[in-house]
Design brief:
This protein is α/β, with parallel strands linked by helices. It is built from twelve helices and 23 strands.
């Protein structure tokens, strides 16, 4: 499904992308020729005519030197003045030098805050956990209709784990209030860097002790908008400390990477470089509560590399109440998250606009609580009275669950995490006209459940004791046959995106799969001792 969206984006890139919002003096490129071949292409003449100012490497190999970029790196061209972007792209492509040339698109954060609230009269040392309906919903939430149990069963999940200080979660957003007490002791530190006004670790960033500001090009990723502090708090605010709110994960480190300006907007080049930075510096989970409507091959490359390095990226679906694909949510390698209300229905609308709503479409994975989400302030360490709404608030909740899952099983792959999130979600919780059985385009696999996800992870620990079987033939046509003891076994079949295709009890040593479309599938067999998973190909 996501593949079809990307294919359409590639086919229509020239005609559609230029109609999107983009910077008028910047281009993102990827070379396909070596440096020696570049000299005969006439590139320099084209760049001179365009008023080329400088070239910046957006992605940096872990083994990169200070020499010129390798052909597989993504570069940013900046120009002195505004240029005719479509014409410039055409001219550069004619050199034959580039794998792609594209605009530096502009995207935006996917959440909004209500007007600033008055400071609560209660002591800031008191807890406001009772406002966090997404974590525990008893049906009494005061700002909207609420349904008891329409939450992620967070307390049961915390009985299993509250996080791991050895895991790093990168929040790519408008920055973070670094001095907020709810992040005390939790800000990631680059142990390879020394604060000496030089790039001690040769990673291209000077004095990046606690992350990086890609908007202003400095080492101070402080929040000047508020979006990032709220998002980071949902994932990582200190819990059980008698102050403020509880994040999903109480122990993991927060890597703040600023990719949105004070207007809650950002260039794709900032996003690409930040993804690369997070991967190179050890983040295991990345949250991007942002989106842009322009398809970018460069950002897809960055996202795919994160996936290849087994780094999870959770992304917001955006808030326009339509199925227009936004990126990076629509890339195959990300986990796309929509928003639910306190009554478990898809958010439509959010509290801040009657025309808003949680986006939907064939690329959605799951939904999570995202409307009326109280959280932290970037301007005050004592004001806990403001709330936000958007898929921006849903995605970081899922990011926190992913971090808890990795605490229990650090070797989980991105595909396994996606599959577990989907398989453990609560289905058919919303309106019957939208929330149909199984995956649907409005809710994906359903509303996430942290406890059930962790239970699934724990069951993987039993895999060594799972059923011993073989399946054949492989590849196969209309059925698969089994050898081994399959007594009292249940099965689930997943596609390559982790979507559950079918399930049931395996009553005989043959299973009809004639209804499956050709492709690669995972077959999971489980009994009371554990589970075993094998792949098969349907011809």
């Amino acid at each position: 499904m996501k593949n079809s969206i990307i294919l359409i984006g590639l086919l229509l890139c020239t005609t559609l992308a230029i109609s999107q919002e983009y910077a008028e003096n910047r281009l993102i490129v990827k070379y396909k020729l070596s440096e020696s071949q570049q000299k005969s292409t006439g590139l320099q003449a084209v760049l001179t005519a365009l008023g080329h100012l400088k070239t910046t490497t957006l992605t940096k190999s872990k083994t990169a030197t200070n020499s010129k970029a390798a052909s597989n790196e993504i570069m940013l061209y900046q120009f002195k003045n505004s240029i005719d972007v479509p014409a410039a792209i055409t001219a550069l492509k004619k050199t034959g030098l580039f794998a792609y040339v594209e605009p530096d698109f502009i995207g935006h954060g996917a959440g909004k805050r209500q007007k600033e609230a008055t400071i609560p009269t209660t002591s800031p040392n008191d807890t406001y956990y009772n406002r966090q309906w997404g974590l525990k919903n008893d049906g009494s939430f005061s700002l909207s209709s609420a349904t008891a149990g329409a939450d992620v069963d967070m307390e049961l999940a915390w009985d299993i784990t509250t996080g791991n200080a050895n895991i790093t979660v990168a929040i790519l957003d408008s920055g973070v209030s670094l001095a907020h007490p709810e992040f005390s002791g939790r800000i990631w530190t680059n142990s390879s860097e020394t604060a000496n006004s030089s790039d001690s670790d040769n990673n291209g960033y000077t004095d990046d002790i606690n992350g990086w500001d890609f908007v202003n090009g400095d080492n101070n990723p402080t929040d000047d908008h508020g979006h990032g502090t709220n998002v980071a708090g949902i994932t990582l605010a200190n819990g059980n400390n008698n102050d403020g709110y509880a994040g999903v994960d109480w122990k993991s480190k927060l890597m703040p990477l600023k990719i949105l300006n004070d207007n809650n907007s950002g260039l794709y080049s900032w996003w690409i470089a930040a993804i690369d930075y997070a991967v190179n510096n050890g983040a295991k989970v990345i949250n991007m509560s942002v989106g842009g409507s322009g398809f970018s091959s460069a950002m897809k490359d960055a996202v795919d590399r994160a996936h290849d390095e087994n780094v999870v990226i959770t992304v917001s679906m955006m808030n326009f109440n339509n199925e227009v694909p936004y990126y990076p949510a629509a890339y195959d390698a990300t986990i796309a998250v929509g928003s639910s209300n306190p009554n478990d229905q898809r958010t439509n609308p959010f509290f801040w606009s009657t025309t808003s709503g949680s986006n939907y479409g064939n690329h959605i994975d799951v939904i999570a609580p995202g409307n009326f989400i109280y959280g932290l302030s970037h301007t005050s360490t004592t004001n806990y009275g403001s709330y936000w709404g958007g898929t921006s608030q849903a995605a970081p909740l899922v990011a926190g669950i992913c971090a808890l899952m990795l605490d229990q099983r650090p070797t989980l792959t991105v595909a396994q995490i996606r599959s577990i999130l989907r398989d453990s979600s609560e289905d058919q919780v919303g309106l019957s006209t939208e929330d149909t059985e199984g995956w649907d385009k409005y809710h994906g696999a359903g509303r996430v459940n942290a406890h059930q996800a962790l239970q699934k992870v724990l069951s993987l620990q039993k895999s060594a004791n799972g059923p011993s079987f073989t399946l054949y033939p492989n590849p196969t046509n209309n059925s698969i046959l089994f050898t081994g003891d399959i007594t009292n076994c249940s099965y689930v079949i997943f596609d390559t995106l982790g979507k559950k295709i079918s399930s049931g009890l395996l009553l005989e040593k043959r299973l009809d799969i004639a209804n499956l479309t050709p492709g690669v599938y995972s077959f999971q067999l489980q009994n009371e001792k554990g589970m075993t998973t094998k792949k098969f190909i349907k011809k």
